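Apologies for my clumsy wording, but are you able to produce some protein sequence, whichever is easiest, and the tokens describing how it folds?
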Amino acid sequence: MALSIAAMIGGLGFAGAASAAVITGTTGATNAAASIQAGEMAKATATSLTLAEGGVGNALIVPYFTTQNGNMSVFHVTNTDTDNGKVVKVRFRSAANSDDILDFQLFLSPGDVWTAAVLADENGLSQLVTSDNTCTVPHIPKNTFIPFRKGNLPAFAADQNQLTREGYVEIFNIADITNVKTWDAAGAVSATGTQFSPLYKATKHVNGVAPCSAAGEARTLLDDLAVTNFTEPTAVAAGLQTPSGGLMGDWYIQNIAQSTTFAGVTTTITANGRANFTHFPQVAQPATATANDVTADALFRTTFVRDAVGAPVTTAAKTLLDEDVPDLSTPMLPANAVAEGARAQASDLLAALAVTSVTNQYALNAPVQGKTDWVFSMPARRYNVVANYGAVSGASGASGPTAANAKYRLFTDLSAAATQDDNWFYTAVNAAAAPAGYGAGGTGQKAAGNTTVDAATGNICVYADGQKFWDREETTGTTGPTFSPGSTTKASFCGEVSVLAFNDTGKSVLGAEVARSNTTLGYVSGWGRLDTTNADMGLPLTGASFIKLTNPSAAAGMMGTYGITWPHRFTK
């Protein structure tokens, strides 16, 4: 393990070579050792992205985490590949507008499980803690609290700490750590080598502990690797390969004081073969990659971006940093590893998540103090519409975080057809901007667009097309329920992760605050369906019903509170 990443790269003569963070691989050879000796990665073969019904895949989405009202959220990430290690990007995003509030790289050995928890400190700022021996970069010491970052949150927010207390998590396999033995004792690739790579040795647990978890040579190796901008040969020399997936994720939300736990599995995206290598340096420096090629996030782009009235935007709102990528729109499929390929990746992702209706149950029974929250998570929305805080110079009107500020919502045009077609979230028609703007409406799209802004929070909103609720005896009303704030008759999804509380204006099941709305029903228990047809595109969302029941007859000292988590059921 004597060679650092820099030494390995220099020894192979690639120290000054141009690099590319999205690598499709070269060889299809079955002799892995020979390919490594030639400096070639296994070729990416995936042609599609789909939701993994079995829960194992390339990208995991924890639809909701919360540290509100005494809640603690816990995560388990499992590498089900018992041969190869995994390099994983973990990113926590705020529920309001999916701002990055913490991200790092995680190094899983074969068969490894990483666990961590998020809870609020005394000031209400979320913080991450783990007692795990799996390695991360930056290094997260065991039982040390890592505070969430607020640098990407809006300056106009009344309480930035609050925006860290709810959100979602994206976790994706960006590279494999190969188990092929073709390194020599000095840590260099060799035709006569019989050892694992130094990286494999640094991350592989020995007596339950990864060597890189302690200060020393192994950790230094990981620190060097995490900030390296790789070419294909240098990545191969480091022991890295195109990712093969195999990640599995679980989560639970626990409130110890209330003796309540909710649990579920991640929403999982899988590729039907090897995916692209997408490792970027874990550093806050301007990215060497072209933003338009590696992300569909409109804040970083200079092409195919429009404002809320359909006018083109050609200047990036923010500078893309290496640590900002990969994100969920960074091309995983080799067909998308081309100029502007991130838009195709975003379309594939949004299509995989899109649903035309959402159905679930609610329970409000008084004898058991029934309470219900529905959570709606839209982890891919950012790659079609995003909030631009840089456009805010006032508190209201055309300069505030409002619908009247045309530059506050930036849309990535995933169609390029000069209409609103093939976009899940789209702008208003703007004949004056034609042909560069949307001079004509799309097929079934709304001329005014399908999003708005909650002026009270700055959260971007999209409305359901309709909804209907029933009790458990088939009863349903001719007039729909009311939703607040705003007293509208349609359910709205305001924020990237929104919570709908049933008949509850106080502390609801989850204690949600960041992007919460309330609905008033005339029924005690039953089920409901939200129509999310959205001009036959559907809306890209996931989530669950969280139901809390309390037994008032529980004896003193006995737990009498119960949590039920039912994933939403969908139609495509």
The radius of gyration is 24 Å.
